[in-house]
Amino acid sequence: MKKEKLWKSYKNTGDKKYKDELIVEYIDLVKIISGRLYTNYNSHVEYDDIVSYGIIGLIDAIEKFDLSKNVKFETYANIRIRGAVIDQMRSLDWIPRSTRHKFRVFEEAINKLQNQFGNNYNDEDIAKELNVDLKELYDIISEISTLSIASLDEKIEENSNFGVKSNNLDFSPEKKLLYNESVDNLHNVIEGLPERERTIVNLYYFSELTYKEIAEILKISESRISQLHTKIIAKLRKTIGN
């Protein structure tokens, strides 16, 4: 049965068998999103657990999706699936407080340097701002790298009108304006990044390559990609939150 017909059958009847068929139709979407998030959360959760959280988001999306709205289901479901996983991970409180504190301090240092020097600062400047040596700086970045990616997902979720707890498919005029401004600000920040950082953003978020694949392309170490990515996220989070 074609998806369009399946959707109409489910929305017209509410029959569970049609909903179950829709779940089967879109389960690959859950697996794709779960695989991506699994790499973000590293070894802190099992892949199968993420898939199960994602399925909750998919079911919620199927039940609440309005065929009359001019929104693709995949777009709507994507954010609800991610939102369901993020909500569950928040409830698990899987990041130690000490790591969260280190990330906040690191983010504040990046923002301060960004305000003072734009992109004209280096790792030595960050280390000096944090009052640590380079080895300590890289140890900190290694510890907070997983949290930084997850926190960017949370920040996007917080600033999205398609949150998992929301029944709305439409933007209000005010929210649409704020959303467009956030997108424009984020685009400007990405465009203003140094070329190598901008390349990492494009390869990781748009081409969806792994750190290892990006490292091979840029001919630098995988750990260096992780370090650069963590700094990029600190910059992007500030923009999304504005």
From TrEMBL:
The keyword Transcription regulation applies. InterPro entries: RNA_pol_sigma-70_dom (IPR014284), RNA_pol_sigma70 (IPR000943), RNA_pol_sigma70_r2 (IPR007627), RNA_pol_sigma70_r4 (IPR007630), RNA_pol_sigma_FliA_WhiG (IPR012845), RNA_pol_sigma_r2 (IPR013325), RNA_pol_sigma_r3/r4-like (IPR013324). Residues 49-62, 210-236 form the RNA polymerase sigma-70 domain. It comes from the Bacteria. One of its GO terms (molecular function) is DNA binding. It holds the Pfam family Sigma70_r2. Keywords: DNA-binding, Sigma factor, Transcription, Transcription regulation. GO terms for biological process: DNA-templated transcription initiation. The keyword Transmembrane does not apply. Signal peptide: none annotated. PROSITE patterns: SIGMA70_1, SIGMA70_2. Belongs to the sigma-70 factor family. PANTHER family: RNA POLYMERASE SIGMA FACTOR FLIA, SIGMA FACTOR F FLAGELLAR. Sigma factors are initiation factors that promote the attachment of RNA polymerase to specific initiation sites and are then released. This is RNA polymerase sigma factor. It comes from Helicovermis profundi. The gene is whiG.
